[in-house]
Amino acid sequence: MTANVSLIRFQVHGDDRGSLIALENGHNLPFDVKRVYYIFGTKADVPRGFHAHRRLKQVLVAMSGSVTVKTEHNGKIETHLLNRSDEGLLIEGLVWREMHDFSPDCVLLVLADEYYNESDYIRDYELFKKEESR
After folding, report:
1. What distance in Å separates the CA atoms of residue 13 and residue 54, rounded to the nearest whole number?
2. What's the number of domains the chain is made of?
3. What is the DSSP code string of 57-84?
């Protein structure tokens, strides 16, 4: 699988009562979701992530607050500020990811195309670089 990081915009439906975003497999999500989790209550000075996945596809959405996501793949390092609930960051393939600068009210939703599988994780940066260079 080719490594890819890209921003997805979700269509907002709403009126004077408020807004709604529907997330649908194969429609505005590029994969069928098998796992959903969210990260919250993370202190602003405590980074998270520091791993890559060999095959997993994910979409990260800041449902509330903000977080900075640093990604690295194919020698390219990017920083993404997630602070809108109508945008998701698609991460697929062998991509190193780190999450920094969580706001106190941040709720980061993560949608994944597979169930949790520890063998898909690369938690050592040097091993990630070796696998990436193959």
Report:
1. 35
2. 1
3. EEEEEEEES-EEEEEEETTEEEEEEE--
How high is the pLDDT of residue 33? Answer: 96
Which residue numbers are catalytic?
A: 51
CB-CB neighbours of 91 under 10 Å: 25
Spatial CB neighbours of 129, under 8 Å, sequence gap ≥ 6? none
Sign of the alpha-carbon torsion through 123, 91, 29, 1: negative
Q: Distance (Å, rounded) from C-alpha 129 to C-alpha 67? A: 25
Q: Which two tokens stand for residue 68?
A: 């900075």
pLDDT bin (cut points 50, 70, 90) of residue 44 is: confident
Give φ, ψ of 92 to 5 degrees.
-140, 145
Q: pTM above 0.90?
A: yes
What is the span of the domain harbouring residue 45?
4-132
Residue 103: name the closest of 58, 42, 39 by CA: 42
